[in-house]
UniProtKB/TrEMBL annotation:
PANTHER family: TRANSPOSASE FOR INSERTION SEQUENCE ELEMENT IS1557. NCBIfam families: transpos_ISL3. It comes from Candidatus Microsaccharimonas sossegonensis. Pfam families: DDE_Tnp_ISL3, HTH_Tnp_ISL3, Zn_ribbon_ISL3. Residues 157-388 form the Transposase IS204/IS1001/IS1096/IS1165 DDE domain. Residues 97-142 form the Transposase IS204/IS1001/IS1096/IS1165 helix-turn-helix domain. Residues 42-86 form the Transposase IS204/IS1001/IS1096/IS1165 zinc-finger domain. This is ISL3 family transposase.
Length: 460
């Protein structure tokens, strides 16, 4: 049987953009001599297309994907052209070659993908370039992913933070349970820039955030229509922190006796009393019996949750005032942060009771798991971890989104003309418009439940 070659031979490179002229194989390297199969003659200075002439050439060494375990170097003569219109010279553009990086485009793409999985040093060694080159390719690759993974703007926006080296702002879609973005810091300028970048940001009705003033101020400025709600979780965790301060100081003062184990019992006490199993309950009550002040502090921490067990703002505030009045003098100091929070953030804490009861609590397990991965010594930088968390394809939550669009009614003469009918103008008279429902695929962001399951495996 005869094989007929339908396509031009592309040789060992398999790059249709290059004609191979010869090849040399060394121990660890392939060297291929090639010439461009076609070049672009477009003048980058003035846009002239046809009036260009060859004006010398330049030898380039282009790195390609390793082949058969060997480094691949392409020796390429690229013509220099002169534009007869503007008299400027320029290098011809060769298909599939990234002249800036002296690499084939496919190697640049491969390097980009690798730079999310491995450290810059590891990738640099694999590809045979320096770390700075890998970092540049990574930055460009992430920028292209950001365009590719455009997220839907949520109705309920969650603003939280995670401490990875320093505090980083994170944004969630509360209803969709997805992560939308992570910023390198939590400065108000960064937060405002992010909020401003959200398409159709007017559709955000609620913002749930922590008690960090720049979050609130940014939301007030950029999303004036949205109701700001202090996240419930962050309110009750203030009382947890106060209780913890009491626990530590009692433990410290009584290191030799019963207090000895107290210092390490953080996790046990962080649980709600109702969530303790029998053994844990006995342990906790043993300590509480021993230290009456610890018992009072524990009771305060548990009772603060009552503020959230009522129906209205008024009832909630009354519950809070009851709670505040019950703080004994000895505990005034450790519990002061709770008091300050309620006094400074009253309006926004109570907004929780207004209509929808939104909370961002599910991001907390995300926080602890991502922090663990970050600390694990897998060489993650914030940028790399961010890229992997945000732009891994299988983690995307894609949903069909129905949109109502106003379209101009087709009139008789337009139907006959065909081309005229694509106009969609805001402010057209209603009798000229009709509303149609269109369905498109939307991306809500990184699905947090899926991400959490994967963070638990070593595969991340
Ligand atoms: Zn020109």
């Amino acid at each position: 049987m005869l094989f007929r070659l339908e396509h031009r031979m592309t040789g060992i490179l398999n790059l249709p953009g290059l004609n191979e002229l010869g090849m040399k194989e060394l121990d660890a390297e392939y060297h291929v001599k090639a010439e461009p199969a076609a070049i672009s003659r477009l003048c980058p200075h003035c846009g002239e297309l046809h009036r260009v002439q060859k004006h010398g050439s330049r030898s380039m060494f282009i790195r390609d994907l390793p082949t058969h375990g060997k480094t691949m170097m392409i020796h390429l003569d690229v013509p220099r052209l002169i534009c007869l219109a503007c008299r400027k010279t320029f290098m011809a553009v060769v298909a599939e070659v990234d002249a800036d990086h002296s690499m084939t485009e496919r190697l640049v793409r491969w390097t980009g993908r690798q730079s999310i999985e491995y450290t810059y040093a590891e990738v640099a060694k694999q590809v045979g370039v320096d770390e700075k080159t890998v970092r540049n390719i990574f930055d460009a690759y992430v920028a292209s992913l950001e365009k590719q993974f455009q997220r839907e703007t949520p109705i309920w926006l969650g603003v939280d933070e995670i401490k990875l080296g320093r505090f980083r702002a994170i944004f969630t879609n509360i209803h969709g349970r997805t992560l939308i973005d992570m910023l390198p810091d939590r400065y108000s300028t960064s937060i405002e820039r992010f909020m401003n970048s959200l398409p159709n940001k007017e559709q955000i009705t609620h913002v749930a955030c922590d008690m960090w003033r720049p979050y609130r101020q940014a939301a007030q400025r950029v999303l004036p229509q949205a109701k700001i709600v202090v996240d419930k979780f962050h309110v009750v965790s203030k009382a947890n922190a106060s209780f913890d301060a009491v626990r530590r100081s009692i433990g410290k003062a009584d290191q030799k006796k019963q207090g000895a184990g107290l210092k390490k019992a953080h996790k046990l006490f962080a649980k709600r009393a109702a969530d303790l199993d029998d053994e844990q309950y006995l342990t906790v009550s043993g300590w509480l019996n021993c230290f009456p002040l610890l018992a009072t502090a524990y009771d305060l921490k548990e009772r603060l949750y009552k503020v959230y067990e009522v129906e209205t703002k008024e009832e909630a505030w009354a519950e809070y005032l009851n709670w505040e009045a019950s703080i004994p003098d000895e505990l005034a100091k450790p519990f002061r942060p709770v008091k300050t929070a309620f006094r400074n953030w009253k309006e926004w804490i109570l907004n929780y009771f207004d209509d929808v009861r939104i909370t961002n609590a599910f991001t907390e397990s995300f926080n602890s798991k991502v922090r663990r991965v970050y600390r694990d010594g897998r060489g993650y930088t914030f940028e790399r971890l961010r890229a992997k968390v945000l732009f891994t394809d299988r983690l995307q939550k894609r949903v069909p989104i129905q949109e109502k669009v106003k379209v101009k009614k087709k009139r008789f003469e337009e139907i006959s003309m065909g081309r005229m009918t694509y106009f969609m103008m805001p402010g057209m008279l209603d009798d000229e418009c009709e509303v149609k429902t269109k369905t498109r695929q939307g991306n809500l962001g990184t699905d947090l439940p899926t991400l959490l399951a994967i963070l638990d495996t070593d595969g991340f």
